[in-house]
Amino acid sequence: VAAAPSAAPATPPATVGSVLNPCPPATTGEAGSPPAEGSGKVPSLLAGATLGLRVEKGDVHYVDKVSKADYRVAGLDIDAKNLGLGSTMNVKLKAPLKGQTPSLSFEGPVEASGEITPVLVGSSVRAARGEFRVDASPLKVEMPGKFKKPAGMPLVLKGKLDGNEKETLIELLELSFHDFRFFAKGRVALQPLNARLDFSADPLKLEKAREFAPILSEYDVKGTATFNARAELDPASLRLNGGLRLSDGSLFPKAYLRA
């Protein structure tokens, strides 16, 4: 009877970085700590890659049976060039919207355009530079008895950003609605996250509000309002400060005035 073959010698455990296991362990952050989540780092391959996107006459339909909401985009057009983190991205969009909920309805096109350049430090996104504009003036919106924006009433959001390796500077953020204009400017930093934004508005003629707020039709509203505010954000807190001033103001039910 032939002797049984001897067992093969046990394989010695692989050592990190050896020929048997050439993959070294993942590197850690400073002082041996793991990399912070949300640090903004992207793979170097993606940082230098760009792509384009073109959508013509696209349709999107969403139905929420629980809230009885129906949203549709019929004829979506998107033209996006140089999408990536290493160049200036150009995006143009036109979205004919239509939506219906028990308390809100809207219908009409929204157009948007922008040129945005990410600011990278290594492979981390630190800020952005560029301009953008969103025009929803042709959009018709209605909340029965409370709010009504007819097609053609101005509704435009535009902004201008400048950025460096430390933060994004919001040079201009302007929202125009009807005869009202609201403004914001400030700065936003991602690492660590902190921001300071200042808000203001042109003087608001309150009697103009009746043109889009049917809820005020039974009131005699007059006066001029001005406001300003500041928001400050850091990893530990959010602070808000501001003021509202009303001059020559009045608010009376019309039925009371007739009496």
In short:
The chain has about 260 residues and is mainly beta.
Q: Could you explain the architecture of this structure?
A:
The chain is built from two helices and 14 strands. The protein is mainly beta. Strands 1, 2, 3, 4, 5, 6, 7, 8, 9, 10, 11, 12, 13 and 14 form a 14-stranded antiparallel sheet that branches. The termini are far apart. The N terminus is likely disordered.
Structural class comes to mainly beta
Q: Give the number of DSSP strands.
A: 14
Secondary-structure element pattern, one letter each: HEEEEEEEEEEEEEEH
Distance between the termini: 123 Å
Poorly predicted parts? 1-39
> How much β-strand is present in the residues?
over 45%
Question: For the CA atoms, what is the radius of gyration?
Answer: 28 Å
Helix content: under 10%
List the helices and strands and how they pair.
Elements lengths: L43 H4 L2 E15 L4 E16 L4 E13 L2 E18 L2 E12 L4 E4 L3 E3 L5 E9 L4 E10 L2 E10 L4 E8 L2 E2 L13 E16 L2 E17 H5 L1
Antiparallel strand pairs: 1-2, 2-3, 3-4, 4-5, 4-6, 5-8, 6-7, 8-9, 9-10, 10-11, 11-13, 12-13, 13-14
Give keywords.
single chain; 259 residues; mainly beta; 2 helices; 14 strands; 59% strand; globular
